[in-house]
Amino acid sequence: MQTLPKDRRYETLSYLPPLTDAQISRQVQYILSQGYIPAIEFNESSEPTECYWTMWKLPLFGAGSTQEVLNEVQACRSQYSNCYIRIVGFDNVKQCQILSFLVHKPNSSGGRYY
């Protein structure tokens, strides 16, 4: 067994290599298929003490396709390329956030993000 290198870990899926566009698309499809409401959030920092992120527009209540969500991620990224951007899935029955994962890190070297 090997210890992971000491790197900053972020949120759900952070121990995996950066997600490809296809993998991000499948995660968004999972959010939609579970009936969760996707939202896009951004923040200049990803420090654990920063528990409040800014929401990009309103949650995507009527999102019917993965591409709609990814288009909003791209719009957010083009305006806030210097920020961390994540997709969040909300459960409207439990009234809470079920999952979230990063889709963009500023000045990321190496892996790809949408």
UniProtKB/TrEMBL annotation:
InterPro entries named in the record: RuBisCO_ssu, RuBisCO_ssu_dom, RuBisCO_ssu_sf
Transcription recorded as keyword: no
Pfam families xref list: RuBisCO_small
GO molecular function: ribulose-bisphosphate carboxylase activity
Any one biological process term the GO annotation gives: reductive pentose-phosphate cycle
Domain Ribulose bisphosphate carboxylase small subunit: start-end pairs: 9-106
Coiled coil: none
Family: Belongs to the RuBisCO small chain family.
Complex formation: Heterohexadecamer of 8 large and 8 small subunits.
Record protein name field: Ribulose bisphosphate carboxylase small subunit
